[in-house]
UniProtKB/TrEMBL annotation, chains A, B:
SUPFAM superfamilies: NAD(P)-binding Rossmann-fold domains
Family, per entry: Belongs to the ornithine cyclodeaminase/mu-crystallin family.
Enzyme Commission number(s) of this protein: 4.3.1.12
Transmembrane feature ranges: none
Alphabetical UniProt keywords: Lyase
Alphabetical list of Pfam families matching this protein: OCD_Mu_crystall
Protein name stated in the entry: Ornithine cyclodeaminase
Lineage: Bacteria, Pseudomonadati, Pseudomonadota, Alphaproteobacteria, Hyphomicrobiales
Superkingdom per UniProt: Bacteria
GO molecular function: ornithine cyclodeaminase activity
Length: 349, 349
């Protein structure tokens, strides 16, 4: 090119390597706490957002989704796939990236990897919900499904809820071994269990995070006792659930965005008008969270675009002025905006 | 990091600079012809695609859109904004980028700038449609609206239809001057006109490509004569049209995807069941294009996701094995796909 691209041409890009460096720079638990604070702040101004169920392309072997949202100032979207059989070929079940843009002119201001960031924001959201819904002084969490999301959940529940004892179970014992090793190294008390029934014994919180795209019953009704909080994050598309319907019927159910959760969440098996409480209303004090110690609470989490918006907003603030992002020549920026063709012609060296 | 990211972590990225280098390497008119061939091939297998109207966020000052589509093998989406007042602050009205992914595992295989590429694919689509709809031996095109898209349209109509005489008009004379200068340098016969009425005199094809987001009447009924082909590309969102309704009523109207065009195109002012012909059916020989020399044909183009799919597919093929793309560390790729957390922990140098 005869002249280098102008400032307007560049979009800060956070690679996987830089996201990991940033996470360590901040500290994983501090990152999760700060991220949860951004999510909470955005949930508390829920009516300010344009909201729409994500746009899902159900493709052979999985799903590819776009998750947009916007307030008056910023727009974001995330690209995310979910392909449960990917691990068989050495691929991630979920990969993701996202973009934050200025509403005023539509220009992207951040492009970021979101495979790592989604794991962090999902965990931060779960633990944030639990601060409103889990029994007071919860100390033990059962984790059924010990895949890629498991350890992030554990870190967030310690950072936000003080939970330090984990009871792990996965149908694949190697997944439990992997999670045990990682979490013991992080200072957790870890109990590796040989069945889901064993895992839930004495747990204050039960987290289900399995990845199979089919109706599965990870938890049966007799496994859930009075006072427990269920953090169900694995059921997140049509045909994919984890809990027996009877559990739902005796739980107080909390959701992110009912229009999306009724399609994708555990409650897809209930009547369309089954009462649910929106988490943002609990955070604003407009609806009750946990009311007593015998209540069964269920966070039927499918992940919502505002959580990604908060995560991108947080990352943008963190990387601003640092070396954790690199400039990407993503946007054409002619001297005269109407002269895109002239820019192209003159670009011949 | 202790180890560099693996092959799976990298997504080829085509920057603005590389897109311009690629365009020159191929040659602009050859690029437009080859791109049109990709678009035509995909239009001819239209039923193979998952199709949905684009997802538009109507924000103050403009619109931000996501345009996804997929066949059985590949998935694509484009991010594109439209902010007509952007030029006042030195920004582009339209900026765009896009991603192509493998359906099989959901992994992106190409990230590309699409501001330049959208201008090229829009022009290629317009000229491709004109090969079916414009009068035989068309030699002269009127162009109303001489902004960023104007010259690309001209180049495509010469490459695909042999049109070499242009009659230009814009309410801003400086835009016409800019386009005249650029197009004269490309060897066109250019007539700069002082009104839209003058511009359309003797034209075989009329291209309207203005950018105002409001109901405007760029063409009134008396300006369009028997046998002309109208290529209307500026009306592309609710409330944004360019043609007087009476023109529509006496034209045979061709569209990309009726579900989207009835919301965004010129035909938004007509009854919901006003007959239109889908361009892909013309290309497959299942519907008539131009039938006689007195017919007024109208391509009511709003741009559709399959055109971007074709463009990304073309660019992917062109950059494969060349230096026109660079690897971007966009995807987390742990050794054990379930051990995302372990990868994060071990990433500390």
């Amino acid at each position: 090119m005869t002249v280098p691209p102008s400032e307007l041409a560049y979009v800060p890009f956070v690679s996987v390597e830089n996201m990991m460096r940033l996470t360590h720079h901040v500290g994983i638990e501090t990152f999760l706490k700060e991220l949860a604070a951004f999510i909470e702040a955005d949930f508390k101004r829920w009516p300010d957002f344009d909201k729409t169920p994500r746009v899902a392309a159900h493709v052979p072997g999985g799903v590819i989704e776009l998750m947009p949202t916007a307030d008056k100032t910023l727009y974001s979207f995330k690209y995310v796939n979910g392909h449960p059989k990917n691990t068989k070929t050495g691929h991630q079940t979920v990969t993701a990236f996202g973009v934050l843009s200025e509403v005023l002119n539509g220009y992207p201001v951040l492009l970021s990897e979101m495979t790592v960031l989604t794991a962090l924001r999902t965990a931060a959201t779960s633990a944030l919900a639990a601060t409103y819904l889990a029994p007071r002084d919860a100390a033990t969490m059962a984790m059924i499904g010990n895949g890629a999301q498991c350890e992030f959940q554990a870190m967030a529940f310690r950072a936000l809820c003080g939970i330090n004892t984990l009871r792990l179970y996965d149908i694949d014992a190697r997944a439990t071994e992997k999670a045990s090793r990682n979490l013991t190294a992080q200072g957790f008390e870890v109990v590796a269990c040989t069945s889901a029934e064993r895992a839930v014994e004495g747990a204050d919180v039960i987290t289900t995070c399995t990845a199979d795209k089919q109706y599965a019953t990870i938890l049966t009704d007799n496994m859930v006792g009075a006072g427990q909080h269920i953090n169900a994050i694995g059921g997140d598309c049509p045909g994919k659930t984890e809990l027996h319907r009877d559990i739902l019927l005796r739980s107080d159910i909390f959701v992110e965005y009912p229009e999306q959760t009724r399609i994708e969440g555990e409650i897809q098996s209930l009547d369309k008008d089954h009462p649910v409480t929106e988490l943002w209303q609990v955070m604003r004090g407009e609806a009750a969270g946990r009311r007593d110690q015998r209540q069964v609470t269920l966070f039927d989490s499918v992940g919502f675009a505002i959580e990604d918006f908060s995560a991108l907003r947080y990352v943008r603030e963190k990387v601003n002025g640092t070396a954790f992002s690199q400039p990407l020549d993503l946007l054409a920026d002619p001297d005269d905006p109407r002269d895109l063709f002239g820019m192209l012609v003159r670009s011949v060296a």
